[in-house]
Amino acid sequence: MPLHINDIQLTDIKKISDPDGRGNLSVIENDVLPFEIKRVYYLYDVPSDGTRGGHAHKELQQFLIALSGSFDVVLDDGKTRRSITLNRPNKGLLIPSGVWRELENFSAGAVCLSLVSAEYDENDYIREYSKFTSIKRG
Ligand code: T46
Q1: What is the mean pLDDT of residues 86-111?
Q2: Are 57 and 75 in contact (CB under 8 A)?
Q3: Binding pocket residue ranges, ligand 1, CB within 6 Å
Q4: Strands across the sheet with 10-12, in order?
Q5: How much distance in Å is there from the Cα of 10 to the middle of ligand 1?
Q6: DSSP annotation string for 89-102
Q7: Alpha carbons 125 and 65: distance in angstroms, whole number
Q8: How far apart are CA 30 and CA 24, in angstroms?
């Protein structure tokens, strides 16, 4: 069944609160994600008017987490566009392949952690929006 953008929702990440008031610990185990983590990278020091992303992936799946601060992820499946705010380290956003994404409105100190399903491969990127919509139209 084709993906609809509204199917993409924030996912809870297991949070272990310390009984002695030492704060929280969150953990992502292998069974949480529909892919094996092959690479980890993170975005930080993004200016408040800066935009990251602006592309889709042919195959790559990824899981984004706001480790600190907040930012918005604009998702686009070629028909519908919606924005999801990430602002908690115990919430993640699973982005399947074939979805255009733009990250914007970074708060001061925001850190975006990205867990992804494959090694870096520039050939997996669709960086032109017109090409993306044309692929989506088939
Ligand atoms: C995504 C968003 C959220 C590498 O050499 N290795 C890497 O693993 C990555 C991710 C990037 N790079 C190089 C490629 C470019 O020369 O770093 C430079 C910046 O990459 P890019 O313009 O793709 O950065 P973003 O923040 O626009 O996009 C990145 C990811 O590429 C992308 O998959 O979804 O973060």
Answers
A1: 98
A2: no
A3: 39, 41, 43, 52-53, 62, 101, 103, 114, 120
A4: 10-12, 91-95, 62-68, 111-116, 39-44
A5: 22
A6: TTEEEEE-TT-EEE
A7: 21
A8: 20
Question: If you measure from the C-alpha of residue 73 to the centroid of ligand 1, how many angstroms do you get, rounded to a whole number?
Answer: 15
Cβ-Cβ contacts under 8 Å for 132 (sequence gap 6 or more): 55, 56, 78, 100, 126
Q: Tell me what pLDDT residue 32 has.
A: 87
Residues 6+ apart with CB under 8 A from 41: 114, 116
CB atoms within 10 A of CB 120: 11
Q: Please count the residues of the chain.
A: 138
Question: Given this model, what pLDDT does residue 2 score?
Answer: 57
Domains of the chain with CATH codes: 5-137 (2.60.120.10)
